[in-house]
User: What shape does this take?
Amino acid sequence: MSASIHLQPSGAPRKFEVTCSSCSLRELCLPGELCAEDLARVENLVYARRRVKRGDALFTAGGEFGAVYSVRSGFFKTSVLDNDGREQVTGFFMGGELLGLEGISGRYHASATALEDSEVCVLPYALIEQLSREVPALQRQLHAVLAREIARDHGVMLLLGSMRAEERLATFLLNLSRRFVRRGYSPTEFQLRMTREEIGSYLGLKLETVSRLFSAFQKDGLIEVQQKHVHIRDIGGLERVLAARH
Amino acid sequence: MSASIHLQPSGAPRKFEVTCSSCSLRELCLPGELCAEDLARVENLVYARRRVKRGDALFTAGGEFGAVYSVRSGFFKTSVLDNDGREQVTGFFMGGELLGLEGISGRYHASATALEDSEVCVLPYALIEQLSREVPALQRQLHAVLAREIARDHGVMLLLGSMRAEERLATFLLNLSRRFVRRGYSPTEFQLRMTREEIGSYLGLKLETVSRLFSAFQKDGLIEVQQKHVHIRDIGGLERVLAARH
DNA sequence: CGCAGGGTTGAGCGCTCTCAATATAAGTGG
DNA sequence: CCACTTATATTGAGAGCGCTCAACCCTGCG
Assistant: This one.
């Protein structure tokens, strides 16, 4: 496993800006600062890799917590179950993102399901716990990742609590676009890995409403959709859907 | 500052079940296991106390992160602001609960406002960071608290994403009830500290809808409401509002 | 006493849901 | 490879829940 190391232009002495380009650990390495030897130790957190077939669970709600997972390739959803068995999708995860953080309290409270054949790095919590005591930068990164997860959830709460349907879908598409481009994919053309029902669950809408909105956005020239293939034609227009709160 | 210490009935040797009854640090002490000397160190995390007047901010979104706060007395709300200045309430916090965890990434991303004259313990992050390296039980508790916060948010997402208005309000009342009773107050009779508008924002409803639902619950004999005073007359009935998903 | 903030209630509208039919894609087994 | 089955997506018509707008009331406080 390799990592590219760049000297900081004007940083503190003995500090390096480190990117774990090949190990899918960006969340824990960036934008933290790790010296080269600590980086090697962080990389050793990767205890194993695990393949997960489309439709299979990486972990399930209620299961005993043991590890956090970093997505190497593929796509996941996380979801919690209602008392009556109804599903609420709480997030979608793509390459480089961390899964399972919410389990640290002892048990996973959500389930993670692969939406396509995927591969993850297994980061046993015992190792993270141990190492973050010895490497303060890792400790801080871990805390930062947890805090960002909370911030992300608050953003979703804002979306669910105060946006109308078309604003929700526009937000969703813009968010996907931003995450794809950070991973080197096209920001305007991509395949959705999730169904309309899963999108709807995440956005607090029914699948028919999602479908109708896709059609409406297409009619307005904002996007082109055909099943799971999406082509964003007017990013500014999508942003304007959000700006036009009345 | 004192703490009551109980030997565990059949625990591991040299481990104590510790409760920080007077220091408002339950979240970081329970259900963790700390030996007596570590407990003293955890209590020293409390760097200062701070009074916050009703309506004043404890911290504001965008402000630099420095400390986590434990509510000693009083009541807070946290909220994030929309691009257009609309407010989304993300949580309510009462005695013993921790505030500001989401700031660990560097800046607070939400604001905390006192809903009545309140007092908090200030826990500087630098101290937490330092001490949690030396006291594994604290480290684990900190992680657990963060993870529970994420789990809590997922619960709210489920509420906002898939419940109808009356289910949301019933959930809200039952949640308040449970939290009051844990603090030694009546589970069936309490004063709301927040306005209808703040409840509505939290639940993704308009204030008029909240008001109407209170009236409807009263007509159904589930509760008695008069302004901010609430008396729950039929907890089972409130629970049945949730069970009756169609 | 009068004002301001918060709460209640009513009438009507509109966004999103429900129910339903059809279309399209993705598997599956012969 | 094709016929069959199943999952997913699209679209329509109509209903209902929660919102908007508006009037009025209550309570605390200067």
Chain B has two domains: 46-161, 163-243. The longest helix of chain B spans residues 136-162.
